[in-house]
Write a structure and sequence with these properties.
Helix content: 10-25%
CATH class: Mainly Beta
Number of domains: 1
Strand content: over 45%
CATH superfamily: Domain of unknown function DUF4426
Number of strands: 10
Length: 151
């Protein structure tokens, strides 16, 4: 009986450990710089409706993605909508091949955000280097990695 309980305990411990291993890692989508926050997200170009892509001259495809950047400021507990800024950046793959990003400014009402289209290969790990500058302030640098998959 003790050996059965011991095996049951070991089994439960193993299942719990495996469940913790299988949990997806939290993906950061923003970085704080004092009162300022840079928000970023990478998504497939096919997530944008065809008419919207056409309006902004964005090419949709299974090997194309978009990087979305927005820049906000929090004052007195209130967070602004996306603010205008200068955004520059590039991606780099594991072979150290670099791809410059060209950002398109999107204004929706009082919010401003930036989209940069880029091409990728299936299961490609890309390293992003981005700089966001508001006015004459010092650039805010963010770096992050994403593995991308064709649809």
């Amino acid at each position: 009986m003790k050996s059965i309980l011991g095996l049951l305990g070991f089994f439960l411990l193993a299942v719990t450990a495996q469940a913790q291993i299988d949990q997806p890692k939290e993906i950061n989508t923003s970085q704080n710089f004092g009162d300022y926050t840079v928000h970023y997200n990478v998504f497939h170009s096919t997530d944008i409706p065809a008419k919207v892509a056409e309006a902004y001259k964005l090419v949709r495809g299974k090997d194309r993605a978009l990087l979305n950047i927005s820049f906000t400021k929090t004052e007195n507990g209130q967070t602004s909508l996306g603010l205008p800024a200068k955004v520059v950046g590039k991606t780099k793959n594991l072979m150290q091949q670099s791809q410059g990003l060209t950002f398109i400014e999107i204004k929706e009402g009082e919010a401003t955000y930036y989209l940069a289209p880029f091409v990728f290969n299936n299961e490609e790990l890309l390293h992003f280097d981005i700089q966001v500058t508001e006015g004459e302030n010092k650039p805010l640098a963010i770096t992050f990695n994403r593995t991308l998959y064709t649809e």
